[in-house]
Amino acid sequence: MVLDVEKAARWIHRLNGKIQEQKQYLTDLDQAIGDGDHGINLARGFQEAANAISANSYQDLGALCKDVAMTLIGKVGGASGPLYGTAFMKLSMAWKGQKEIDREAMAKGFKDALEGLKMRGKAQPGDKTMIDVWEPAVAYMAGEGPLNGEELASVAKEKMEGTKELEAKKGRAAYLGKRSIGHIDPGAASSYLLFSTLAEVIGEGESA
């Protein structure tokens, strides 16, 4: 077992805490190349998601992820709500009826989520978006050998920082062209928080 309902709930609560702490940083990143509302919108949405799952008791991962998805879609403005909402909706479908999952099932869920993000955002690796973190993080999950939380977080961090050197091809940042180079993508930064927090949670206790 890599992830169960209890760990997933802890992941969402801890992710919410990290987003609240980093709200201004995410907003500053978005003010440089986007609409300037990424941190504010995500902080509101994940606080609502944390509140929603606190008010319920879950027997399976799918139901928990579905409530997170619906809350994010309903409460978060801008592009980030539909994107993160899509990701969690794909996770909910992949993990429906499962109280706990192994590495293979976790990787399958995140692969489905990644495909959902690509379809929703029409982005590919190299476009300077959250996909630049999601694609390598999911590839690591699906790889061989033991799943190491520190390695997962390291992959996500390296790829987030790598977006600084990219020219934006999607979203508001694309209008800046070459001027978008030199800035970390805000979606990549929030995606790093998602994966690094997941890495912390799955690293607590048994290894995969």
TrEMBL record:
Which keywords are on file for this protein?
A: Glycerol metabolism, Kinase, Transferase
Which PROSITE patterns does the record match to this protein?
DHAL
Signal peptide position in this chain? Answer: none
The reply to whether Transferase figures as a keyword in the UniProt entry is yes
* EC class name: transferase
The reply to whether Cell membrane figures as a keyword in the UniProt entry is no
Q: Which residues form the DhaL domain?
A: 6-200
Q: What are the protein's GO molecular function terms? A: glycerone kinase activity; phosphoenolpyruvate-glycerone phosphotransferase activity
Q: Which domain of life is it from?
A: Bacteria
Q: What EC number(s) does the entry state?
A: 2.7.1.121
- Could you tell me what this protein does? ADP-binding subunit of the dihydroxyacetone kinase, which is responsible for the phosphoenolpyruvate (PEP)-dependent phosphorylation of dihydroxyacetone. DhaL-ADP is converted to DhaL-ATP via a phosphoryl group transfer from DhaM and transmits it to dihydroxyacetone binds to DhaK.
What PANTHER family does the annotation carry? TRIOKINASE/FMN CYCLASE (PTHR28629), TRIOKINASE_FMN CYCLASE (PTHR28629:SF4)
Q: Which NCBIfam families match?
A: dha_L_ycgS
Q: How does it assemble?
A: Homodimer. The dihydroxyacetone kinase complex is composed of a homodimer of DhaM, a homodimer of DhaK and the subunit DhaL.
UniProt name for this protein: phosphoenolpyruvate--glycerone phosphotransferase
Give the species this sequence originates from. Answer: Caldibacillus debilis GB1
